[in-house]
Amino acid sequence: DIIVAGEGTVDKYMGDCVMAFWNAPLDNPEHARDSCLTALKIVSAMAPLNERLKKDAKAEGRPYFRLKVGLGLNSGEVVVGNMGSAQRMNYSVLGDTVNTASRLEAQSKTYGVDIVIGPNTQARVEDLATIELDLIRVKGKTEVLKIYALIGDDAFAVGRRFLAVKESHGLMLQAYRNMDWAKARDLINATRRLGARFDLDALYDLYESRINAFRADPPAADWDGVFNAASK
User: Fold this and answer.
1) Which tens digits make up the pLDDT trace of 122-167?
2) Where are the alpha helices (DSSP H) in the chain?
3) Nearest to 230 by CA among 113, 103, 95
4) Which element (helix H / strand E) includes 81?
5) Does residue 181 contact residue 160 with C-beta atoms inside 8 Å?
6) pTM to 2 decimals?
């Protein structure tokens, strides 16, 4: 319902996954923004849903399991239309852009954030609250992607606390890529304190584990700061 209300087209259900796309069948010049705002609404809907599930579980005397979502958004050219065979036809999208979106969704677990967006999407929604996550090479691809976490809408993006976190986080990434491990760790601690309510602990745990590994086994002098993702 949230996807449809956000001008999206629900493509299919795949196990525990929903695939959707924007800008088809009708043109929508705001497709990137609409998809991002829809993703944020989906994440916001999880809290009341989990509260209801928790109450239901307690009333029925059974265990409660918290539900979480991870979303990946990517923008680019695709093939869209009725595709399939004589036995089964579906209005869908195909292409490298779609495959990359799937890889980005998987990275939400790696980085401990709810929404991961690709660089083409981020370039279209620069007024929304985003922070750079990493430079990665996703599984099955050779090009390097700069990926981002979508944290909030345009009102959130101008908040003093978020701006402070974004600045400190950017300095941390710069120190990390310069192989200044001590400075990067100090900035991680500082950014954790600034962004305590943004739920970024898993992200900074990841960077701390990388720093520990690099201190024990330093990368080559020409290291480009790119992380090769092992999982899809």
Assistant:
1) 999 999 999 999 999 877 777 899 999 999 999 999 999 999 999 9
2) 2-5, 31-60, 96-111, 119-124, 154-157, 160-177, 181-194, 201-216
3) 103
4) strand 79-84
5) no
6) 0.94
